[in-house]
Model the fold of this input.
Amino acid sequence: KAGVTQTPRYLIKTRGQQVTLSCSPISGHRSVSWYQQTPGQGLQFLFEYFSETQRNKGNFPGRFSGRQFSNSRSEMNVSTLELGDSALYLCASSLEHNYGYTFGSGTRLTVV
Amino acid sequence: QQQVKQSPQSLIVQKGGISIINCAYENTAFDYFPWYQQFPGKGPALLIAIRPDVSEKKEGRFTISFNKSANQFSLHIMDSQPGDSATYFCAASMSLGGSARQLTFGSGTQLTVLP
Done:
């Protein structure tokens, strides 16, 4: 059974640019959550999508957005990148009642 | 507002020793408490989890102890091995209504097991 796949693994962007990250969940998992991980702030919840609808959202500015497609694959977008957006972005998938999350290996975003 | 407080931030243990990581939560609506293990370059992986209706759960060398009256729970790693060296996160989950739930993580503990 394939795990959660995140692409790309590494990304370097310039301040002011925008970026799109992709997540393919485990087959059959309909919930996809995104987290930002930094040394200073730890794991912070960005948002969760279920059946193509945003079901929950964390305390991040509107520059952070996401969507989910009918096949449950999800993308997140960050516009007008800032240096502070440099982080490991993790995607996690789960069944409808999301008790057990399975995380991908993340996308390491560096903003220069 | 940090809803799950985790300590210590780092922990060094000799091979064969016991590693203990503690977490405390503030929101009594939390009803599911998982622990995650993260190796460098990897995402967190679910290690073991407990619900508040039990006081202890053991899986191999890993044990969760839960103290509902004190709003605290802890992870004990018996016979710690160098391969256990990783970052450990406690977490707490609560219902948001319907089938939606939210998972809140502690700040993490970097465990180093010396050979």
User: Anything to note?
Assistant: The longest strand of chain A covers residues 42-50. The interface with chain B takes residues 4, 33, 35, 42-43, 45, 48, 50, 55-56, 90, 92, 96-106 of chain A (CB under 8 Å). Residues 28 and 104 of chain A are 15 Å apart (CA to CA). DSSP finds no helices and eleven strands in chain A.
